[in-house]
Amino acid sequence: MAYIGQGLNRFSNVEKLDVITPATATGAGPYNLTKASVAFVPSSADTMVVSINGVVQYGNFTVTGSTITFSAALADADVCDFIYHMGTGLISTPADGTVNTAQLASSSVTPVKFSTTGISAGNVIKVNDAGNAWELGNASSAEVYGFSKNSDGQLIITTTNQGTDSISSATFATFDDTLFSASGFTFSISNGNLIATI
């Protein structure tokens, strides 16, 4: 029965080695393992797949360093079709949309993996106004809001502007009222009422 499954060329951690030249004089081996004519040391015999005369050999050879030795002698008439090294921890690329929460190990996603594109100091990740996605926002900081009136009776609101501005003790003494809160409030007047919006 023909092999049915993922082709070896679809795995990213498979290495194709140079074929060996079986010889009656060498018999079972050892034969040198190379990749692009450079000595290659497999991680173990269990990670090797070898084809001789169209028959896949597996588990009937040993590997020592960069050499392979078979359990039975090879002859001049034998042909090595291919040698694949499967690597340690075979890796394939998952298809788009196939990695879900269940596949992610607990604590596997850390801030170091977050993209830093478009961010600036003081940004936080928050829920958007529609409540259906995450977006960047500005972090709140301690804020002082001072309320006073000018000579025309208009309401004046003075803030520390998220720590950017300072309020002197003399200015602070002129406030009719003071609010200590988080940054991000905007104030307006509607029908004579002071409206605070965040």
Neighbour order of strands in the largest sheet: 1-9-5-6
Termini separation: 69 Å
Kindly estimate the percentage of residues that lie in beta strands according to DSSP. 35-45%
Count of beta strands? 16
What structural class do you assign from the helix and strand content? Answer: mainly beta
User: What is the 3D form?
Assistant: rod-shaped
Helix content: under 10%
Topology as a string of helices (H) and strands (E): EEEEEEEEEEEEEHEEE
Radius of gyration: 36 Å
Largest sheet: 4 strands, antiparallel
Low-pLDDT segments: none
In round numbers, the mean pLDDT is: 85
Describe the secondary structure blueprint for this structure:
Blueprint: E1 15-17, E2 31-32, E3 34-35, E4 38-39, E5 48-52, E6 55-57, E7 61-64, E8 67-70, E9 80-85, E10 123-127, E11 134-138, E12 142-149, E13 155-159, H1 169-173, E14 177-182, E15 186-190, E16 193-197
Antiparallel strand pairs: 1-9, 2-8, 3-4, 5-6, 5-9, 7-8, 10-11, 12-13, 12-14, 15-16
What does this molecule look like?
The protein is mostly beta strands and 198 residues long. Among the domains are: 76 residues; 56 residues, no CATH class. A four-stranded antiparallel sheet has the order 1-9-5-6, with no helix packed on it. It has a three-stranded antiparallel sheet with strand order 2-8-7, with no helix packed on it. A three-stranded antiparallel sheet has the order 13-12-14, with no helix packed on it. The two termini are 69 Å apart.
